[in-house]
Amino acid sequence: MKIIPISCSFDNYCYLIICLSSKKAAVVDPTEAYPVMAAVEENGVQLTTVLCTHHHQDHIGDIGELQQNYVDLDVICYHGDKDRISTANKYVKDGDLVEIGDLQGRVIFTPGHTSSSICYHFQNHLFTGDTLFGAGCGRLFEGTPEQMYNSLVEKIEPLADETKIYFGHEYTVKNLAFAQQVEPGNANIQKRLDLIKRNNGVSTPSTLELEKETNPFLRCSEDEVKAFAERSRGEAVNDLVEVFAELRRQRNTF
Ligand code: ZN
Ligand code: FE
Q1: What is the CATH number of the domain that holds 70?
Q2: Which domain does 143 fall in, by range?
């Protein structure tokens, strides 16, 4: 298995997932067709599948153009997005398997950013769309704080620490600046910023372990994070979902 991150407009990433034995490939969230087609050609693979994490235009915008160039493309989305992704032709639900050649991935339903957001889990690789970002998480456009919190903590956090995280946007530097404000005592945040500088601003993929160390949205139970939430709210917070909700509110205007 080989994964190629492709930088697109609007600071989006899409990803080409290649099955090395069959030379078949899938693309996750094709913002733009042109760089995807270039990567397909460069790697001499057959594009068979599009994996959609959610219905936002910056993730599905160029699927139609890909369909014009590759016949019989499987375009997969969550069944709840059937009416919102008109280019899709296969629909999945939580726990379903998707195939790329000889590779198998599992669908994880993670509502919060939208009501139908999903992640794709292939071996130790997780494609998170706009659910989990480097040091951040997606805005709550359709879900409640509780839904997003449960998606992150109950669905993603139990995966192996070494799981590589491939997210949908490069917001990591700004997210880490916010994280430093939340947790000035967390030295891992500056270390991660230094690492990104050495990598010329690119931080995908990260690992679940690194997110657990530096992503405030996965650290709601830390005393310093809770204290930040109480300070900015001006009153006590009663549970971890309230800490999460306050963090998300503060990040919206950061
Ligand atoms: Zn989105
Ligand atoms: Fe997006």
Answers
A1: 3.60.15.10
A2: 2-252
